[in-house]
Amino acid sequence: AIPPALAHARADFPILQRSVHGKPLVYLDNAASTQKPQVVIDAVTRYYANENANIHRGVHLLSTEATGAYETARGKIATFINAADDSEIVYTRGATESVNLVAHSFVEPKLQAGDEILISAMEHHANIVPWQLLCERVGAKLKVIPVTDDCDLDLTHFDELLNEKTKLLSLVYVSNAIGTVNDIAPLLAKAKAKGIPTLVDAAQAIQHMPIDVQQLGCDFLVASGHKIYGPTGIGILYGRRSLLDGMRPYQGGGDMIAHVAFEGSTFKEPPSRFEAGTPHIEGAIGLGAAVDYLSGIGLQAIHDYESDLIAYAVAKLQQIEGLTIVGNPRLRSGAISFTMGDAHPHDIGTVLDTEGVAIRSGHHCCEPLMKRLGVPATARASFSLYNTPADVDALAAALKKTAILFM
Ligand code: PMP
Question: Would you indicate the residue range of the signal peptide (predicted)?
């Protein structure tokens, strides 16, 4: 049953009314990017129609209003993840830029040859490649927590992997490829006990479950706006204020400086220090509206509803002959990956598209994980608050047609 808080959610998303190839759209590519509710579209439109001006520098009314909207959105995001202060939210282009910011401004200045950065085999490339590049620059080592056949973290050697050489523990909360939910709080606590800073990649978590950064105890957390019903090109870095205070700038330019002279420049306090140049103003405002929308429904309600939906989808997909669900994690959120015999996942995706069902196929920016699980690629259905059991039924029906074609 659909709980009252979510009963009308579909109607909030205008794009869900359209059809593709003459069939009603069944959108199951939410891990890549979610659709936008009317309130987010309206917030962006209202900004351009009424408030558009550059922020922070103007004394005129439009600039003051735009600055107010931009900063109010920051406060909403801080509240959304229970940051201790608004200044702990840095706007970025997305999760990817947030990781790169931490690599450049926090880790690199302290990293020496022989030091280690600890990640897992379940990471998105965005939480692998920035560390690889950094380790190459410095002569440090990237260490990897393995995953089990079911695609849970294999913590057998965690205590040895997390050692005095470790300069950062950076972990994905929810796997975009398989849907594994990692029980990260105890791992973050172990790192904290050893004085090792931590980063949580919450790109696939923050839209599916309540997140409280103070309760989690992480030092940094990254997420992308476009995956949580907000605009593209905006994301966040949460950073503990005491750490942000000690960090060097990420990029140089306007708005991040206190004073500029040819003899040397000084920089603003966080978060401005990390927001050089004119930012994605309407993106931030749209993200604020998305966060309002999510809070209005309630993350616990979303979590409970989506959990039931995913359990229903797993059960339904298991009944399809020739279909294999890849990974069997203890806890799952957001995504289900599968293969069908020798059918190429791109071909599965193409046939589903003709039925109006949008899924994703490929390595999902997780090539090392795919290698570990022994598949070159998978087809992935990923869910959001507006999906329904009817969407799952449409997926299953389209997959049965696919099976007849390929098996
Ligand atoms: N981490 C995870 C777990 C993701 O799913 C993604 C996006 N697929 C990213 C990081 C990167 O996000 P973005 O491309 O929006 O920067």
Answer: none
